């Protein structure tokens, strides 16, 4: 079997394009087919191809790189990333100012970051590290990252569920893009679990980068975080086999709700059932029968949640906490049973679900207890 190839995350290509544009700006017209870039995380230097670079004015240059995520299911493959670099004003407060242009998403309802470009911590660090070392004393630049296809691509992602609109995020904690859909990546996740288990008896599982980012924002110890991608079932079993005492599941409700229905591989290509699971819980708790078709026919899990919220507002009921409280409890029970069935080990499992605005929607009783231990 051919070994799958890793690639690089979107921030790497944005930084590479910015380096090429800055080189043109400082040194004049030249042929630039690639640039060397320090990934920062991991600590290694790589060579990134550059598609095009040109000066626009005497004070600005534009370079283009194309995304290469490796052998991964990633819709940004071959996406052009533009970096416009301009000399900064003398009174510019920072040596390097990073801003988002067309196709880079905006953060909405993010604490202290309202309407800021969705260029997160690793991308900022990567850009500043690589660009500042090429500037001489007194030089300042302004960098605008542009994703011409970002707005259209964002419609095919769950970005809006995490409070990012009108484009893609420059998100990630590393420069390496691993083939997350590959069984080989499950092995890497398992190895990370075993490493952390040797230090902690309680771990926090997050499906992806959005969950990891939000978990640290609410105070969860980052050393306890374990990324699972969609391999929640195998990772739960691995936790049992490794002797982990407790697992806190932290994730978007539209993803974790599948666990309440016994779906332990959460990629949408494998199984969905979110609205069916939600409707069943609504019916079981006695939601008026005339409302159930609307829940079932909702376009997304988020839309169904908002419908339930509208019912609570208009009728003075509290269906949302009841329904999602029951779902969280069911997730806990299903996961604990799943672990025991496949490992004959008992592991405490609690779940925390958040909504598209990054607000905690529900904490199960077990999760409430575990949260104080992992923060």
Automatic annotation (TrEMBL):
InterPro entries: CbiD, CbiD_sf. Pathway: Cofactor biosynthesis; adenosylcobalamin biosynthesis; cob(II)yrinate a,c-diamide from sirohydrochlorin (anaerobic route): step 6/10. It is an enzyme of class 2 (transferase). GO terms for biological process: methylation. Keywords: Cobalamin biosynthesis, Methyltransferase, S-adenosyl-L-methionine, Transferase. It holds the Pfam family CbiD. One of its GO terms (molecular function) is methyltransferase activity. Its EC number is 2.1.1.195. It catalyses: Co-precorrin-5B + S-adenosyl-L-methionine = Co-precorrin-6A + S-adenosyl-L-homocysteine. HAMAP family: CbiD. Belongs to the CbiD family. This is Cobalt-precorrin-5B C(1)-methyltransferase. The gene is cbiD.
């Amino acid at each position: 079997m051919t070994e799958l190839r890793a690639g690089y995350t979107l921030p790497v290509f944005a930084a590479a394009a910015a380096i090429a544009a800055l080189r043109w700006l400082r040194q004049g017209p030249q042929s630039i087919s690639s640039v060397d870039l320090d990934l920062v995380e991991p600590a290694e230097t790589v060579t990134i191809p550059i598609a095009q670079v040109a000066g626009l004015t005497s004070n600005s240059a534009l370079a283009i790189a194309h995304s290469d995520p490796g052998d991964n299911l990633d819709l940004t493959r071959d996406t052009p990333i533009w970096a416009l670099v301009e000399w900064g004003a003398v009174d510019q407060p920072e040596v390097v100012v990073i801003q988002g242009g067309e196709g880079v998403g905006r953060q909405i309802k993010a604490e202290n970051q309202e309407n800021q470009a969705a260029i997160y911590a690793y991308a900022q660090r990567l850009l500043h590290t690589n660009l500042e070392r090429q500037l001489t004393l007194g030089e300042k630049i302004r960098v605008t990252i542009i994703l011409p296809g970002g707005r259209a691509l964002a419609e095919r992602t769950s970005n809006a569920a995490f409070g990012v609109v009108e484009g893609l995020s420059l998100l990630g904690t590393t420069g390496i893009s691993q083939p997350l859909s590959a069984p080989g990546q499950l092995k890497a996740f398992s190895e990370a679990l075993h490493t952390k288990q040797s230090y902690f008896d309680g771990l926090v599982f997050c499906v992806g980068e959005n969950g990891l980012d939000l978990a640290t924002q609410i105070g969860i110890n980052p050393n306890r975080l374990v990324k699972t991608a969609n391999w929640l079932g195998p990772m739960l079993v691995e936790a049992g086999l490794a002797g982990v005492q407790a697992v806190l599941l932290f994730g978007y409700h539209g993803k974790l709700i599948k666990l309440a229905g016994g779906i332990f591989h959460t990629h949408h290509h494998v199984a969905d059932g979110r609205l069916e699971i939600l409707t069943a819980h609504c019916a079981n708790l006695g939601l008026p029968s005339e409302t159930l078709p609307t829940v079932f026919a909702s376009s997304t899990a988020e839309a169904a949640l908002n419908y339930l919220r509208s019912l609570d507002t208009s009728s003075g009921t509290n269906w949302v906490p009841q329904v999602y409280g029951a779902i969280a409890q069911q997730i806990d029970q299903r996961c604990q049973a799943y672990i025991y069935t496949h490992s004959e080990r008992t592991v405490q499992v609690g779940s925390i679900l958040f909504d598209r605005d990054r607000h905690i929607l529900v904490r199960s009783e077990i999760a409430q207890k575990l949260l104080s231990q992992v923060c």
